[in-house]
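Methods — Computational structure assignment.
A single polypeptide chain was analysed. Its primary sequence is given first, followed by the predicted tertiary structure written as structure tokens.
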Amino acid sequence: MIAEKRQEEILKILEYKGTVTVQELTSKLNASEATVRRDLTVLDNAGKLNKVFGGAVSNSVQYNLTDDEISKRQGISRNEKIKIARYAAGLIKPDDFVYIDAGTTTGYMIDFIKEKTATFVTNAIFHARQLALKGMRVILVGGEFKISTEAIVGNEAINNLRKYNFNIGFWGANGITPSAGFTTPDINEAAVKECGIKQTSKRYILCDSEKFGKISPVTFAPFSSAFIITDKINDDNYKNFGNIINLNS
């Protein structure tokens, strides 16, 4: 394949996926690593992509490197988050063993949860308190308290979660792309999310439309590992994925 054709294919792949590794490109293009790296350099110099260590990122992908405090995030996309939360709460059935991740959208779920025979486990102190005030049976994960997200994190939290087998669970994410999966800025919080997802049968990521196409530093689960509940899809690249529940469709 000539260089111009390879480079066109690379841009098409990035348009669809957002990010790609050198290894993926060598396989798809049947080219050597050295050839792929030269193509990426040419495209980066031309301003058509961003070359990064081990691969490339589309110019349209946005990076979210920090975790805002929960008080700040509560006012962002509030109506969209409430819409997502209401739908998610309706998925909880009698006697479910439920995991609820820390976060603003998962927190909005609590107002809409009606099933009092379910048991809830969470790593968020606020969530635990609100659930308990509603008369729910709640188990709070122990560990280190992270003030910015009001989440319990660390090895003790992970060891706690490994004891449980949830039949349904709900998580937030700071960014979502098919290649990077579900991402978050903090490695300790990502480790707790990853452990909770592994312990759960039916997994749901609650994500407003602004999170699509964004990447945070740490991946906690692959894109295909959970259903995504969102208020709408703004990017046509995501419309054909079977694991996205689009509440605006």
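Note: The chain has a mean pLDDT of 90.
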